[in-house]
Amino acid sequence: MLIGAHISTVGGEKKMIEKINNFDINVIQIFVSAPRNFNDSKFNQGSAKEFAEYIRKKTKVKDIFYHAIYLINLASSNKDLVEKSKNSLISSLQVCSWMKSQGVIFHIGSSRERTFDQAKDEIADNINSILLNTPKNSTLIIETNAGQGNCVGSKFEEIEYLISKTKDKSRIGVCLDTAHSFASGYDLSNPEKLLKNFDNIIGLKYLKAIHLNDSKTDFNSNVDRHENIGKGKIGLENIKNFINQKTLKNIPFILEVPGFDNTGPDKKNIEIVKKLLR
Ligand SMILES: [Zn+2]
Quick check: is 6 catalytic? Predict the structure, then answer.
């Protein structure tokens, strides 16, 4: 089983390694650069390779995922913002390739005053242009969204449309965030139906990761607030049924929960999930 968490790189590699080994996890997600600005990543080819090799050598980590910065918007009508977002994702995918990472997970962004239909072909063009300008061994992973403020990707049909327009389908994937999808109206109490729905519309072969989070906000609320496992509106029983679905056996689970001491994903949340897995 592949289970892990978002791990902060602040404080350096030694601190990260201590945390990963303490959590006893084999998957991590990290930011390639500071998530709230468009500054370049600190990694170059040499340091990226060295970093990833060091992490994989000193821990049980197999899969390394990246989370793109929060400012990304490929759906905006603001051309400057879209250009900056494309460049940021191109830079992240480059680092991804150097580190042999499993991919860069990102939010498409909000189409704001436009509908999805009005923005969808521009978004698809942006994805194709990013993939055209990045190494072949890097994967762009669209995260499901809670659907607040015209954010694209809250409906499986929207993601399916974008994948259908992607020229190199071997380099595109999906990360299902349980808190976001619950908030956008996908019922976690019937995981068989949910995954069947995902398979029928998008295709399970595109599912590259699960962001496993409970939700502070109500079903179909369109509000994105993560909660510790079992403490939110999805609840322990539903999470247990979901993570034990056979179709998810080889899919990495990544926790992005606030933590019981509010310092981010913690050992306690990881242990709860491990206990729930049969
Ligand atoms: Zn997430």
Answer: no
CATH 3.90.1150.10 fits 3-276, yes or no: no
What gap in Å lies between CA 174 and CA 158, rounded to an integer?
12
180 in catalytic set: yes
Distance 277 CA to ligand 1 centre (A): 20
Sequential pLDDT tens for the chain (278 residues) = 899 999 999 889 999 999 999 999 999 999 988 888 998 888 999 999 999 999 999 999 999 999 999 999 999 999 999 999 999 999 999 999 999 999 999 999 999 989 999 999 999 999 999 999 999 999 999 999 999 989 999 999 999 999 999 999 999 999 999 999 999 999 999 999 999 999 999 999 999 999 999 999 999 999 999 999 999 999 999 999 999 999 999 999 999 999 999 999 999 999 999 999 98
CA of 76 to the centre of ligand 1 (A): 21
Per-domain boundaries in the chain: 3-276
Measure 177 CA to ligand 1 centroid, in angstroms: 5
Neighbouring-strand partners of residue 210: 176, 253
Q: Identify whether 211 is a catalytic site residue.
A: yes
Q: Of 63, 158, 214, 224, which one is the catalytic site residue?
A: 224
Asked about 67 being catalytic, the answer comes back as yes
Torsion angle, CA of 213/218/222/223, rounded to 10 degrees?
Answer: -60
Q: How far is the CA of 258 from the centre of ligand 1 (A)?
A: 12
**Are the C-beta atoms of 228 and 234 separated by less than 8 Å?**
no
Residue where the block lists tokens 């978004």: 123
